[in-house]
Predict the 3D structure of the following.
Amino acid sequence: MDILASPLISELFSLTSQPVYLVGGSVRDLLIGVPDVKDIDLLMPSGSEDVARAFADRIGGSFFFLDEERKVTRVVKKHEAAGVVQFDFTNFEGPDLAADLARRDFTINAMAVDVRGFLSTNSLDGLVDLLNGREDIRRKLIRAADPKVLDDDPLRLLRAVRFAATFGFSIEERTACYIRDRADLVARPSAERIRDELFQILSVPGAGGHLLLMESLGLLRNLLPELGPLKDFAPGKHHLYDIFTHSLRSADYVDSVVEKLPTLTPEHAATVTAHLDQELEQYVTRKAALRFACLLHDSAKAETYSRDDIGDIHFFGHDAVGADKALLICQRFRLSSDTSSMVSRLIRHHMRTLNLATPGGPSRRALYRYCRDLKDAVPESIVLSLADAKATSEVMPAEGFTDTQKIAGQILDYYYGKFLKTEAKPFVTGKDLIARGMQAGPKFREILDDIKERQAEGTLKDRQEALEYLDSLEPGGTMKDLRE
């Protein structure tokens, strides 16, 4: 449903006689041809906060301030046909409409149209476009309204990349120069605002190109200085590119790996794809977090580099060291504990998929422990491993990549077919151990994991067998055959 053509927005005009303008992203999206605009940006000369509050009451929406000092407000309405719609209200910043539009970030966001006129004519004939934003949309260009706006809010440096990625536009060369000149300002905004822009970029397909654009503008090195030592770092015989380029290519290959899931694991492809589209937090989908993990997965290689007596290069422990570094980076960007944990787990265990590709195939116990350690990030781990392999496949023997694909399919079959069912309905729980006089502690968890491993591999076929096995353990919970 087109919310701009609905009776909902007409309710505004009984609440104020002032002009109300549709501005910014709403106008841009209409010109680009977005079919269903649900973020409505509204501008008034003054008093918009009072109109917004009354509008929320009139339409049965919720009202709150986004910026109390600047009197920026939002009304959110869950509409039966359109879903969740939000209306953002602001007042002129400056004496008139022209002054307000001139202080906006990019020309494609510096246009306005009177809402009453728009609704009466159902057209943008009355478009106020003082900076030729409509022509920039036609030319698919991101152009700064004025270089000063980048100084006013350095987050706009990153936002230029986000718009370029989202719309498939190019950044105008002069604007690119303005951004490069100010690249060292990009880390100044709050971590939360930077995080939101960065992960919106990582949510768009073609992450490798977007990250490369960020680097060409000097933004990536300022946001993630940990990647600096990876540039021009020779990674050894299994890589064609330096580790920095390999990391970007790994993030980029996520898309092609996901596209080919139906041939790799036809039974689970749709489930994995839906899983990756889930949100971990606002603006952070699982797929975006996965691309972030791909970018960071080899971040500790420079500091774990070594060469043995016969000249072979090693990076012992780079997965564990990299996981710890990634956790600190996630905390710096104020990512949630769920997102931080997932990114760290993916990096800590990113070598294990390849290690499971043994000639005889992995044991059920090895599969269980892999799934237990990755938890709900098993699908992401598989995609990361395949993307990592594809980013290396230019020099890796073809059979090595094929082996990675084969084990990936086996792991997903086991994860969805056995592991999740065992986790959902374990034969034995902590209550059973406590009933037998066992004390909570490290062994307590080991016993439960051991029994779940046996349940998943089929050694224990039902609860009765699991209880009998539990009773066979030595008094006090000693697992006499746990490692047999």
